[in-house]
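We store chain and fold; thus.
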Amino acid sequence: MDGVPPLPVWAVGDYAGPVRDVVVAWKDRERADLDLLLAPALHRAAAVVAPSLRAVVGSAAVLVVPAPSAPGARLRRGREPVGVLAGAVAAGLRTGGVRAVVAPALRRRRTSRDQVGLGARARGRNLDASVRARRHARRSSSCVLVDDVLTTGATLAASERALASAGSTALGAFVLAATPPPDAVTESPHDTWSPEVHPADTLGLA
């Protein structure tokens, strides 16, 4: 976002090769058994990051907010995979001494399109119009976002803006995997959002 420092993003791995295959199978091929592999990886990552967050928030609670899925994707999958990840992140933060609780504070309007196949600019437009904070979302809260894959950053950017509009602050985000940005950037800085991506763990799949 223009004038706003990049949101720190902690990624377990690169969205390529075996990692990509596992994440796609988990999300879209009904491989819920892979929860047993992926959730512990984010638990470990969150436990490693927890001391840095605790230095910022002290004894205050941190809300772990899953990025909202499009209603169509949720119906197609029959469950909320990112909710599983959010639970793992919250548990990992608690292991590291942070008071963390899962809070599904965001929603997607039914008119929004699925993000698959959209470019960075189209993703941003689609999500800016659809991601909203729920009415019961706590104000003046410190939050961390959780998503499965970071591609263009549009989902996290829209989620961060929605939380800010509700009076909350996103301190960072955890993802399973991140796609490296393309070498050539054609959009202006005012149209893009570039998070800082930090390696946080490994799935041991490379």
In short: The helical segments are 17-28, 35-57, 71-77, 81-95, 120-128, 154-165. The beta strands are 8-14, 62-66, 100-102, 106-108, 131-133, 142-150, 169-178, 196-199.
